[in-house]
TrEMBL record:
Record-linked InterPro entries: Doc_partner, SpoVT-AbrB_dom, SpoVT-AbrB_sf
Biological source species: Aurantiacibacter gangjinensis
Molecular function GO labels: DNA binding
Pfam families in UniProt: MazE_antitoxin
Gene3D superfamilies hit by this protein: 2.10.260.10
Name recorded for this polypeptide: Transcriptional regulator
Amino acid sequence: MNAPLKVTKIGNSAGVILPKEVLAHLGIKVGEELTLVLKPGGIELVSGEPDFEEQMAVARKVMAERKRALRELAK
């Protein structure tokens, strides 16, 4: 889908209105958050944090390796 979006003044900021097709494609509803990722030559809008799963995988690995220490700290 290629559709021109008009930049609108919103208070001291600026914004664009996303068509309902874009919201449906992203799987989000009004009031939910998007993450804006700066890319060379443009931007990317994603629902959720783009590297959340990668961060969680690292956290799970550390928690598994340091299980005893974490158990002691939790006391």
